[in-house]
Please model this.
Amino acid sequence: MDIPRKSASRKRRVKRILYALTAIIVLAVITVGVSRLKPAIPSVEDGTTWKGEVKRGPMTRQVRGLGTLVPEEIRYVPAISQGRIEKRLVQPGATVSKETLLFELSNPEVQQAALDAESQFRGAEANLSTLKVQLEKLVLDQRATLAQVTSDYKKAQMQFEVNTSLGKQGLKPDLEVRLSEITAADADSRVKLETQRLAATANENKARLAAEEEKVRQLKDAVALRRQQVAQLQVRAGINGVVQTIEVQVGQQVTPGFNLARVANPLKLKAELKISETQTKDIQIGQPVSVDTRNGIIPGKVIRIDPSVQNGTRTVDAELLGELPKGAVADLSVDGTIQLEKLEDILYVGRPVHGQENSTVGLFKLEEGGKTAVRVQVKLGRSAINTIEVLDGLKEGDRVILSDTSAWDNADQIRLN
Model:
């Protein structure tokens, strides 16, 4: 009977352990080696990329925005008086002057009130004329009375003087002389009294006339107001221009302040541009603007910047300084470019898709030969519409990919096929 030897069994066990250790070591070496392998360089179709070259020189900073042409002079024609639209005499698009009649309104109450006011005014004028005659008669009567008492006073004074002279000669008794003196004094008092009465009558007449004249003046103003209300039933354009809209129909009842039409001057237009709120921080009043109407470019300047933000934009008004091209009308869509400043002798490149001013971005710079590109960190400065300043990371003559490279954010190098 064969008995297995312990040495042979031990050898087989050692051999298996050695094989296992060898396999583990080989697997570890392979894993480490694979982990240290660099990933394959991604390939990109060269024709699908947009490239730009870093240049040195002047760069004009600009911002651009869409907008419309709007009239500088617009008048919303309101109804001044309540009434009913009887006639509409113009249509939208009609050229009008400030005296052109747009609508005829009717309002019997306003017309009747005007007639009543004129009647009251004529009655007050007649009463004033009558009062003037009456007061003049009172003054004349008072003057006649004053003249009579003055005459009586002079006679009494003369009689007193005669009696005094005769009394000194003994031809008149003292009693008669004293009686003539009293008569003269009494006549003098009546003259003074009637003089005061004439002055009081004149003052009273003046006050009564002033009160009646004020009443007439008030009624005259009322007549003017009523006539103006009647005249306002004839609605006129108010300015020279073109009728843009008509808001009412014949037969419609309108109230004071109701908007009837809109008239604008087509020869005085401005551009209202919508600029992204992030690009308006450097816009200032007076900066030059170029307004493209698709039928010509008009020079202008910034005249107003809206202080509020709406839907991510701010409105910038530009005055048009050049002659309007044909077809330039209100509400025409335009493209406006505002020149912020001109920078001299700087490095600049075409604006990358995701490149914002005063930021640092990763761009792929083409290596020599143009078949590969490596990622570099580029510090950007001030921007224009299509270009942006390069502060660090690139030098003049470098070529970079400006199109969207977000698909290769994890790659430091790409190959161009």
Q: What stands out?
A: DSSP finds three helices and 21 strands in the chain. The helical segments are 6-35, 108-168, 174-231. The mean pLDDT is 86. Residues 108-168 form the longest helix (61 residues).
